[in-house]
Amino acid sequence: QKAEWAKLKNEKTYSQDGHHVELVANIGTPKDLEGVINNGGEGVGLYRTEFLYMGRDQLPTEEEQFESYKAVLEGLAGKPVVVRTLDIGGDKELPYLSLPKEMNPFLGFRAIRLCLEEKDLFRTQLRALLRASTYGNLKIMFPMIATLNEFRQAKAMLEEEKAKLISEGVAVSEDIEVGIMVEIPSTAVLADQFAKEVDFFSIGTNDLIQYTMAADRMNERVSYLYQPYSPSILRLVKMVIDAAHKEGKWTGMCGEMAGDETAIPLLLGLGLDEFSMSATSILKARAQIRHLSKSDMEKMAEQALQLPTTDEVVKIVKEAANLK
Ligand code: PEP
Ligand code: MG
Asked: What is the ipTM of this complex?
């Protein structure tokens, strides 16, 4: 089996009936690049930049960030790299920002909410990204977007920094796609409106499930609610993918679900364009997709969307995809 997978390292990913999807990796630091390349990753679908800010006692400088982003973009030699702007807060703290304790950190001042307030911090990251953009195929993604106004504000700040850099004579790529994480239900529900303004979506199921089910993703006692195959989650995923396609945009997924062998047949059937997972899952996923018929998975997904419970969904997926 491992030998079959290894042969697929430099292949693209096609279903049995010739439908193309992209298999890319989630990374946290430039050190993870080797794993992406060795495992046949077609790019990076989520670069979690939090790690640049964590485990230290002050903010990383523009220069430090520039070097990290440049290293990843150069290392992937023109393959797509989706960099997510700072997603701090919730479970990820930065002691040196000395933010007040909150009653509900997962519902509080985090990610893009913090970045839109802490403007210098955000602008520094945007400048570092823009400066690095000429070294590869950069796509910028904002986390935890709940409203169109948040996206518009973040995008406007990006455009302002871009104009400043250009007026300073700094080269900036002209074709940077700008997208959002879809991980808050309000955004999934309003995906048709977002799709007119963003370049792409990446569905963050880790949070989307937690917020849709009102079940903490870390809390064992409510883990029975934390179900990726819940028909409610599938309907949200479907809405997002369809909304994007209607506007000619693409949709990826970078939550854990994207690399799960039970989810992959369903996601293929729902029309997902890009699957971002831990690098070590990529070859296995590519081998699996080569044996799946997209049109059969579409029929199965249609059926799954009409089922009332998670268990019934899992049952038909496993049958359709020949999983035990
Ligand atoms: C997600 O929420 O699915 C996601 C990919 O982001 P994180 O796990 O970093 O919150
Ligand atoms: Mg998230």
From this structure: 0.99
